[in-house]
Amino acid sequence: MSPTGLRHQVGQLLIAGFDGHTLPIELRSLAREFGLGGVILFARNVAEPEQVADLCFDAARLLPDLPAWVSIDQEGGRVARLKAPFTEWPPMATIGRSGDVALAERFARALASELRAVGISLDYAPVLDVHTNPKNRVIGDRALSDNPEDVARLGASIIRTLQAGGIAACGKHFPGHGDTSVDSHLELPLVEHPIERLRAVEFVPFREAIHAQIASIMTAHVFLPALDEARPATLSKPVVSGMLREELKFDGLILSDDLEMKAVADQYAVPSAAVLAVEAGCDGVLICSGDHDVHAAALEALIHAVEEDRIPFARVEDALKRHQRTKERFLAAPVAARPPQARQLRQQIGRDEHRAIADEMSRFL
Predict the structure, then answer these.
(1) Domain ranges of the chain
(2) Which of 1, 37, 70, 126 has a CA positioned 20 to 30 A from the CA of residue 255?
(3) Averaged confidence pLDDT in the chain
(4) Catalytic residue IDs
(5) Is the Cβ–Cβ distance between 227 and 191 less than 8 Å?
């Protein structure tokens, strides 16, 4: 790949948010100029299922040669962008309290079928954080358990089942957001554990997820002085490349959490953070607002960093290859000629059997 080719492919490193129920012209322009790895949907992008299916159909086809990820945070509980008539799932702590792998699998199978029905291909789930701090409200009942082995066992079953259903899973938030007391959306959490504790607790579910061949892992905006005394985990080469890639042997996609969260953005401008994240070993960055000027500035910053040899050309090539390999794994099915029709959608979404699974989970609230 030449430097000229880089300009037309560097957008593969970006998963972008946007405003509205249709793709903005600015996002289409960004995809034409730089390429685009994918989009992330929020509640602001969601109306009725038919609209979501049309939007996902268009988003996946932003690029002629390589499908774009259509991604979402659909965990269950308070982090769920798709509401009724989609099945509304209880928080993942209910599965943890049940201890039931079969229930976890039924949940994941139903979730995958509803996401697949509307054209979503990547779900930022499951949460693999071990909820060891009762004061941790940002994770709280999003976590499966306060026991690392339980998180590992149930998380791996969700991963395998989601991915068998055609949805790329994303475990989060590495190297662990379970023992924090502040919200990384608002400020940078401090994790003071030594590396021995991280290996014994926080890393356990991620090791099992890697064994389950999880497609992607998301980094945490947390500060761990034991691993890096200068930078938060997302921007840290010792954490991303040293721990996740080299020690844990993860060979899939590494994605940053949203670079506009205050844990990072209070200290680093988004374009600078994008450069540091990719330099650290992230294969993709999430920039979740609808500010397309910020998206373009981040991509220009990445191009300049490569041109100035701050980021080795091989690092970007490696990231691009990982995207391509993962997309070939999950997006290789023949592309439908048109979005699904309303009747097809309504047969898949909010089905009685799915609601029965949600009701069973609710017994453990």
Answers:
(1) 3-362
(2) 1
(3) 95
(4) 185, 257
(5) no
